[in-house]
Specification:
- By secondary structure, this protein is mainly beta.
- The protein has one domain.
- Helices cover about 5% and strands about 45% of the residues.
- The chain is built from two helices and 21 strands.
- The chain has a 19-stranded antiparallel β-sheet that branches.
């Protein structure tokens, strides 16, 4: 009897032409760290009286297809996830190519994502997948990963894959030691850790349907938030927070001039934090920042430089 193992699991994806309708043809095979994307249908306890103390059978609730996918932040495949999160990029260059993603688009593409377990001959196709949020953490060492929170319309199961002959891209991962954080174009010192979260704040269209599915997941007001942990060495950031002065923050991974990923939050506001002294060690300050749209332009720009010609 074959048993499913994560080592052999596969994640295939392709952008949809019609929301909730799985496209045909060859899908892209994505590297991933973990996934709990899938459908679930809860039970509602019986509310009937007069049948004795033992309850009557429960009834089925609506179907929810949601979950998180953790993916590596890499040079090539990550562009597909950015397209799902922010929309199609503006691509320039003749190689290397610079793919520029801007926040704030009114509509976002959807994907079909298939999570396959070949040993069990079970392939779960999630249709109408939109990315609600993406979270990245910056640290001194380790692999760079991103957590994607996904909302889908439905899921189906098949005994064979629907992904055709999957295409793959050469995997080149970004690592944390290649990361950097800049304030207004200058390296920000004494940073021990940081986090960045972009959310589309998807609104689920929960209409009454016989199949229990949602009609869609539409983006509303976006949010760009995060934290910066710094060793307290001077009052520069404290003064910025006290004066409510907006700054530009840049979070980047750079391998070389031809392979890089830069997140730029153009107008960031810092709260004034408490400084707690808890022992003889260094004093740290934590800033839970929020970004806003500047008077000209967009809240967030992401520039991915690689050798991929386009993300059609």
């Amino acid at each position: 009897m074959s048993r499913a193992y994560g080592a052999n699991a596969q994640l295939l994806g392709k952008f949809e032409t019609i929301y909730g309708s799985s496209p045909i043809g060859n899908y892209t095979k994505f590297p991933f760290v973990s996934s709990n994307l899938g459908s679930e249908q809860g039970l509602i306890a019986s509310d009937l009286l007069g049948q004795g103390r033992d309850p009557s059978q429960p009834i089925r609730d609506v179907i929810k297809v949601e979950g998180d996918i953790v993916v590596p932040v890499d040079v090539r495949n990550f562009g597909y996830w950015l397209k799902a999160l922010l929309g199609a990029p503006d691509t320039t260059g003749t190689g290397p190519y610079v793919h520029t993603f801007d926040s704030g688009l009114s509509s976002l593409p959807s994907l079909s994502l298939e999570v396959g377990m070949p040993e069990a001959s079970a392939f779960f196709m999630n249709m109408g997948v939109r990315i609600d949020s993406m979270q990245l953490s910056f640290a001194r060492s380790g692999a760079a990963n991103a957590t994607l929170n996904c909302v889908a319309q439905g899921e189906s199961r098949a005994a064979a894959s629907s992904g055709g002959t999957p295409t793959t891209s050469l995997l080149t991962r970004f690592n944390q030691f290649q990361g950097s954080i800049k304030r207004d174009g200058t390296a920000l010192g004494n940073v021990t850790g940081a986090q960045l979260t972009y959310s589309n704040n998807l609104e689920r269209i929960e209409t009454i349907r016989s199949d229990g599915k949602i009609d869609g997941a539409d983006p509303t007001i976006a949010a760009l938030t995060g934290t910066i942990e710094v060793r307290f060495a001077d009052t520069t950031l404290i003064d910025t927070a006290t004066n409510n002065t907006p700054i530009e923050l840049e979070f980047g991974y750079v391998i070389d001039a031809d392979h890089s990923l830069i997140f730029t939050a153009h107008e960031v506001y810092l709260p004034k934090p408490k400084l707690a002294v808890t022992g003889p060690g260094g004093v740290q300050a934590s800033f839970n920042w929020q970004a806003a749209k500047p008077s000209v332009g967009q809240m967030l720009t992401v520039a991915l430089t690689n050798d991929v010609e386009d993300y059609a």
